Amino acid sequence: MKSKLFSSTILASVVAAGFALTACGDNSNPGNAQDTPSSSSIATGLPDVSSSSEAIIGNSSASVPTSSTTGSDCVASPVAFPQDKFVDIGEVYKNIQCNEKVVFIVRHGKRESQTGNLSSLTIEGYEDAVTAGQKLVGGEPFKYIFSGMVRTYQTAASIATGRGDVACTADYAEAEDGLDHLALTCTPPFAADTLPQLKDGWYTKDKAIRDAYIAADTTDYLRNSNVMITDWVYLGNYADAFYDLDERSKEFVALLVKDYNDMPKYTLAASHDQVLMPLTAWATDKKIDLKLHDVTSRKWLNYLAGVAIIINDKNEQRYVAIKGMNDKVLTDGTVLDGGVQ
Question: I want to staple 155 with a disulfide (CB 3.0 to 4.6 A). Which of 2, 33, 97, 108 is the partner?
């Protein structure tokens, strides 16, 4: 298992749609990301928030109590989770020890076909996220973080609904762009912090070089940028377009994980596939198969899948690949892992 030391209700109707192996959003450097859409731009319940360079866990507008010490009656027996497969998020949650804290980073739920800032969840995506939240019921309050895009805000709010932290109902409403989007109404209003580095683009060093590779391809190999990303992660190609995987992943973890004493017990961050696919591969020493570039594999990170970062009272970290979606069993007995699509 990778281990390192750092300091640092549900609606009845379902919209039928297949999984699309396409990027979640703008792949430009997140430092140049568009501003977070405000509640006046779309009826999502999204609050007016200012994008900050860092979400200060345990000290923010959406802060929750933090734990500074471990109780004297704490007897910890850390669970050794497998590194070569996705573990259900509820299984990880119930096995967090008395001297451990955890940050769950998950891809948003199933979204509309659009990939812009205002793209929302589908009804199915909302329901799946609520179901994932139901696996996290109990314990201390959760800290919620999202990327600044509507679908990640809705994902966090839906998971919070499943946990019982808020009560969000979903419906479709026409927005200013003339399209119908999923709208959430939450009681009480849902509070979450914004971390723009959670947007797609975190691992992209030079978007122009990346796009030039795609434009020059005549074999249809790079039919979407996700193929290039998995090729880079597993084979090391296109290194001039992407950052060093190890260094960039450590920088990302440092954005979310602070000193143990300054963190809440539980944090849930909603992000995007082009961030979480490389992070998941890195966190599991590439034992997880997400090789979209491999015609014999063709796997990609599923909705509501990602990484759990577990930190103990010695500031030691370990990582687990997690899935919020349940496995599906086909009529022929084939099991579809909820972590991949």
Answer: 108
Instruction: Name beta bridge partners: 99.
Output: none
Residue whose C-alpha is closest to residue 120's, from 212, 216, 17:
17
Give 339's DSSP letter: T
Q: What are phi and psi of 30, to 5 degrees?
A: -60, -20
Count of residues in the chain? 341
Q: Which of 135, 136, 153 is nearest to 144 (CA)?
A: 153
Q: How far apart are CA 243 and CA 238, in angstroms?
A: 10
- What are residue 306's DSSP bridge partners? 106, 322
pLDDT at 22 over 70: no
Residue type, 330: L
Query: What six digits make up the tokens of 259?
Result: 């000193």
How, if at all, do strands 266-271 and 100-107 pair? parallel
Q: By three-state DSSP, how is residue 144 classified? A: strand
Given a contact cutoff of 8 angstroms between Cβ atoms, the answer to whether 153 and 108 are in contact is no
Closest CA to 320 of 142, 53, 15, 105: 105
Of all helices (H) and strands (E), which one includes residue 3? strand 3-5
Q: Which residues pair with 104 in a beta bridge?
A: 268, 308
Residue 152 to residue 149: CA distance in whole angstroms: 6
Higher-confidence residue: 245 or 332?
A: 245
Maximum distance among all Cα pairs of the chain, rounded to whole angstroms: 64
Separation between Cα atoms, residue 106 and residue 284, nearest integer Å: 15
Read off the amino acid at residue 341: Q
SS3 92: helix
The pTM is what? Answer: 0.83
**Tens digit of pLDDT for each residue in 144-174?**
999 999 999 999 999 999 999 999 999 987 7
Residue 332 burial (10 A CB sphere; 0-12, 13-18, 19+): exposed
Token code pair at residue 223: 């039919």
Taking the CA atoms of the chain, what radius of gyration do you get in angstroms?
19
